[in-house]
Amino acid sequence: MKHSTPAFEAVKPNIGSSFTSLKFLRNENIKSHVWHYHPEVELIFVCGGSGKRQIGSNISYFTDGDLVLMGSNLPHCGMTNENTNNDYEMVIQFKPDFLGESIWELPEMQRISNLLEKAKAGIVFSENIKKSIGKKIVEMHESSSLERLVKFIEILDALASTQDYRILNAGKYYLQTQVEDNERINLIFNYVKDHFKEQITLEEMADLANMKVPSFCRYFKKITNKTFTQFVNEYRITHSLKLLAERPLSITEVCFESGFNNFSYFNKTFKEYIKKSPSQYRKEFNFFIE
């Protein structure tokens, strides 16, 4: 079987602009299966809908849209597909030096500079920030020339001023700077993405990475700051969240559909990650959306 490495995505700024601003209507930007990276920093606002996000080694589930900021060359999958049911998606991409190499050294830009440093590990913003900034992103996109640039700087400053966010990849995410690791680690990521419903052994992954099992375990932990078992469980639990929220399956069916072959282990692992049982999660989620 052929395994793909993350694709390099070439990004061109809008004509007459120093950065790229794109708006996609529902199903126009189906890239959830495309694992890619680019030197541009990327701000994505998904209006409505739900789905899985994979940014670096983090796999998580979003509902009622999303707002994320990703640093240069941080590998990620697209946010939306035909099942997301979002209204639209806004994508802003810019080189870290799009305003010049020394501008971030100015005192007025210190907050934004700190924000871009944090974005190297991926940032997801809270519900309130998502809604308020989402509106500003649309206004910025519909502006022209200098007004668009000014509004974009204001958006970055607003994001830099809030504490309502979560870093997606804890600790240093080595994959971003160690380009030579991309091919090996992403063979592993893509394999898990395509086969998480099946049994995956350490021996298989070590062989795929052309390493011995102990070396592979050390390598994976160094790159992702989590064990391989934790990574696979996180992927499976994220998928189970989507199933619990969106499909009328029994808890047992969700367990096996998510790649777990032991119901007790699924319940135990779910509680470890989500801090509640699958049935409690579904009940609270249904109450929230009613």
Task: Determine the mean pLDDT.
Answer: 87
CATH homology superfamily name of the largest domain: Jelly Rolls
Side by side, the strands of the main sheet go: 2-9-4-7-10-11
Biggest beta-sheet profile: 6 strands, antiparallel
What's the CATH architecture name of the largest domain?
Answer: Sandwich
Number of β-strand runs: 11
List the domain count as a whole number. 2
Radius of gyration, in angstroms, nearest whole number:
20 Å
The top level CATH class name of the largest domain? Mainly Beta
Give unreliable regions as ranges. none
Distance between the termini: 44 Å
| SS strand fraction | 15-25%
Shape: globular
| Class from helix and strand fractions | alpha+beta
Q: In CATH terms, what is the fold-level topology of the largest domain?
A: Jelly Rolls
**Helix run count:** 10
Helicity level: 40-55%
Describe it for me?
With 290 residues, the chain is α+β, with helices and mostly antiparallel strands. The chain has two domains: 7-167, Jelly Rolls (Sandwich); 178-289, Arc Repressor Mutant, subunit A, CATH 1.10.10. 43% of the residues lie in helices and 17% in strands. The chain has ten helices and eleven strands. It has helices at residues 110-118, 127-141, 145-161, 182-195, 202-208, 213-224, 228-246, 251-257, 263-274, 278-289, and strands at residues 7-8, 20-25, 35-37, 41-47, 51-55, 58-62, 66-70, 76-77, 88-94, 123-125, 165-167. It has a six-stranded antiparallel beta sheet, with helices on one face. The longest helix is centred in the last third of the chain and has 19 residues, at 228-246. The mean pLDDT is 87. Keywords: DNA-binding, Transcription, Transcription regulation. Pfam families: HTH_18. This is Transcriptional regulator, AraC family. It comes from Chryseobacterium arachidis. GO terms for molecular function: DNA-binding transcription factor activity; sequence-specific DNA binding.
